[in-house]
Every structure is written in C-alpha cells, then in structure tokens.
Write a structure and sequence with these properties.
The chain is an alpha/beta fold and 289 residues long. It is built from ten helices and 13 strands.
C-alpha cells in the first residue's frame, strides 16, 4: 500500500507510520483478516499494488503502535507481550498477535482505544471474535486460556459526564471482560470463516462474492429522535424506528420538544474504514439505498 501525504503533515509523522508497517507473519490469513468480510479481503488481495492511504487517515493506527510499545516496555515478568501465534487450519496457516498473554493466569488481554459510546452495549462483536481466535491459537500452541479481557482507553471521555450519568464509564481507562466461547464453537467459527475466504479468493468474478452484510458494513438504522430545545442529545427513550412512533411519543410531551430525523449510516463504507470501496461492485448500490 502506498502512503500519501495530501495534507502535507510533518515528515516525522509520516516516517513514524512508515516505520511500523503491519505484518501477518508467514501466514495465509491473520486473525483480523479472518474477521473481515471475504469481499473486502479479496479486493485487498486483487488491488494490493494500487492501494493508497493518506497519512492523515493513519492517526489511530499510529496511536495503536504507541500503545503496543507501552505494553512491550511495561510488561511484567509473567507476561508475554506482543507475541504472534500460528496454527494450520483446513490447509491454511492462521496467525494472530496477542497484546498481552499471561501464561500462569491463562489470561489474554487486548488493548483498545475507542469512543465512549462504542462500548455502551459491551465489547464489540469483532473484539469478542478476535480474542476467542487468539485463545484457539494459543491453545493449539500448548498454552492455557481461562479468561479474556479488553483494556479500553476512551479517547473522548469527560469527567463531567462521568459525574452526571450512572451509565457513563467512571474512568478514562477500564477493563471489560469478554466471554470465552466453548472450544467447539471457536473451532466451528474459524473453519467456517476460512472456507468463506477460500471461496472468495477462488471465484473468477468479484460479483460472484456476496456483498457485505449489514453487520459487516457496521450499519446504523435510520431513527426519529425526540429532542428538547436546549438539549444536544435525544431525551431518554426518545429514539424511534418509525416516524409514527415518534409522533405518538411527541403528543405526550410539551411544546419544547420536537422530532429530529437521523438518517442511517453504513459506517464502514462511508467513513473511510474500507480502503477498497472504490473497486467494490456494491458500493454505489449501497450509497444509493
């Protein structure tokens, strides 16, 4: 992938990005690649020599590199930091790198930097899958795994909100437990995903690969929000899937309230999280829906 610098950012910033390229090691697919939509992985494979990404879009990846450096430097003696594990599954070599693995405790720990509201319903599904794949890999390499957890650092955390709301994280950094799947569930998930990716790489035409699912596009449905004058967010229980439900709710409230329509989003497609969307046969269709 070619790195551009369209905003003329400082050279030190660009060089730092170039100094830490991502590598899946000597494997056919990585843990993160396995979780990705097969269509995206196929497009990344086909257009790998034409891919471009601007340095300004790599800020969070660079911050992730900084976090990984902290883990390596500060890891205690009973921890294996930044260790990549490999296993052969259905003819493919699968790899995954654990941020921190504690062999004696049987704990896999992954560090994430994210927004506060991204974890309001618990760890993201992709995070859960990622850690369970790592558990599988470590067990295949003779390790023991009893527990999984995410160390979350909230980049937009505000102390005022923490004091005001019980549903808001108490601190800027916290630990989130992750459910450890039964071994047969992890095995089935990995084998199914590998077969999906194999099929996507083997078909002669891109259009023979199914388009990404709503979940893979990180879709947010359109909603009608009940707002109150002077308030920036919707009132409690004020988000409705239909305009009719919002209008019924509005009739119960004062004239200080009103309805605000919030169109749905396909976050992965529309906000720069997919670097191959320009070659995707479904992207224009997705944008038109």
């Amino acid at each position: 992938m070619r790195l551009t610098n369209n905003l003329n950012l400082p050279e030190a910033f660009v060089r730092a990005i170039q100094a830490h390229p991502y590598s899946k090691g000597e494997s056919d697919i990585s843990c993160t690649g396995l979780i990705k939509p097969p269509l995206m992985v196929r497009l990344e494979h086909d257009y790998r020599d034409e891919l471009e990404e601007d340095a300004s879009d790599r800020i969070w990846a660079l911050r992730g590199t900084i976090i990984h450096h902290i883990i390596e430097v500060g890891a205690p003696d009973d921890c294996l930091p930044e260790t990549r594990f490999f296993a052969k599954v259905n003819g493919w070599i699968l790899s995954g790198q654990a941020d921190a693995y504690f062999p004696k405790e049987g704990l896999i720990q992954d560090w994430k930097e994210t927004g506060v509201y991204s974890t309001r319903e618990g760890p993201k599904p992709d995070w859960v899958a990622q850690l369970n794949i790592l558990a599988y890999l470590i067990r295949r390499n003779g390790g023991e795994v009893n527990r999984l957890e995410i160390v979350v650092m909230y980049r937009d955390w505000k102390i005022r909100e923490a004091k005001r709301s019980q549903n808001y994280p108490e601190k800027r950094i916290c630990k989130l437990p992750v459910v450890l799947w039964p071994e047969d569930k992890i095995q089935e998930y990995i084998e199914t995903r590998i077969e999906l990716h194999k099929e996507a790489l083997d078909v002669p035409e891109i259009t023979m690969i199914p388009e990404c699912t709503p979940e893979e596009r990180w879709e947010k449905p359109s909603v009608w929000a009940i707002m109150k004058k002077g308030r920036k967010s919707a009132i409690p229980n004020g988000l409705h899937q239909t305009k009719e439900d919002a209008e019924i709710h509005l009739k119960e409230l004062s004239d200080q309230h009103y309805i605000e329509f919030r169109p749905g989003e396909r976050t992965r497609c529309e906000e720069g999280y997919c670097v191959v969307k320009q070659w995707c046969p479904y992207f224009k269709q997705v944008g038109d829906n």
